[in-house]
Amino acid sequence: MPFSNLGLCDPIVQAITELGYSAPTPVQKQAIPLILAGKDLIATAQTGTGKTAAFVLPLLENINKERKLRGKRIRALILTPTRELAVQVAANVAQYSKHLNLSSMAVYGGVELEPQKQRLIDGVDILVATPGRLIDLAHQRALHFDELEVLVLDEADRMVDMGFVGDINKIIARLPASRQNLLFSATMNHAVHTIADNFSDSKMSNPASEISISPKSTTAATISQWLITVDKDTKSALLSHLINTEQWDQALIFIEKKHGAAKLVDQLAKRGIKADAIHGDKSQAMREKILADFKSGKLKYLVSTGVSARGIDIGDLSRVVNYDLPFKPEEYIHRIGRTGRAGTAGEAISFVAMGDFKNLCAIESRLNHIIDRKEIEGFPVRKVVPISILNYVRKSQR
Ligand code: AMP
Questions:
Q1: Does residue 75 share a domain with residue 29?
Q2: Is the pTM of this model over 0.70?
């Protein structure tokens, strides 16, 4: 089915055609008609499924282009958990609205407030924001929500994980009651549902439609996943070995702690591998520069903590590496969702040390399958990681 059959206007279809999108992805097929019909929506869809276009395209179609926007007003608000995701979503909005006469911008913390205030003076049709900075701007009366038509919560599960529920509720309390609400989340749980229950006053007369694109917490089939068991002290040597012998063109490498990220960059440099790291301690300008270099291919290996990596969208990222295995299965799924996007092939490699055994059990239980193991010549392990029990439940969840 071509995009034109979904009821999007020509300027939008033209913009996505220019981007090389030939047909809607499953989430787009399901969400676009519902959003165009003005429905509230709760969608479970992983990053990489095309979820951003699934809400941005109909939103561009729906917002009232006839009414003149007053100063400091916005028509659509997209809330994201991180700065990087805000930048990414705003870039998508700009691409998709290229042939429409609509303005858009991102506001997020870590950069000066004043230029953002200045740009809001004339009003902005579509505002992408992180919660903290948005609240600051609202407190300073730099923007008003009385003309808002649509609210989107993107990566709602992540916002819950990052402790933004209070901020989100504060923002929702300021919005006009009559509006369209759209919530997108990679995973669905009670906390996410509670936000969705809160966000619509009109939910009794106009209940939100719910769609789920991938079954709860699964990973895209195009991602080949495997793991290597390793002793903690040989991890950096193993990573350098793989980069060199397998001639990796690109890798996004996840690490637990920010000081570990800087150390790993040094260890790789000692073996002649040029990598860089993004984490919360780096300035926003630095992070954006490093990300741009990684996206353009100038930088081949990027080391990142889990939080910093949110929102990184690289169309054809071929490989992610869990240098440290994440604690939560949802985090594993988010991370590996960085590769194999929109149907392209990708590879997710995890380094697993004995201390990660419980996390591995939790991840494989959630995936409901054992991840293939590979042995690398020259890297025998001293502490063997046993094969997981697939019905593993953490003590705290029993
Ligand atoms: P998202 O899930 O929004 O992070 O999107 C993942 C990637 O898929 C992005 O690089 C988009 O540009 C791309 N994408 C979104 N929709 C389509 C489509 N219909 N056809 C091809 N690529 C798409």
A1: yes
A2: no
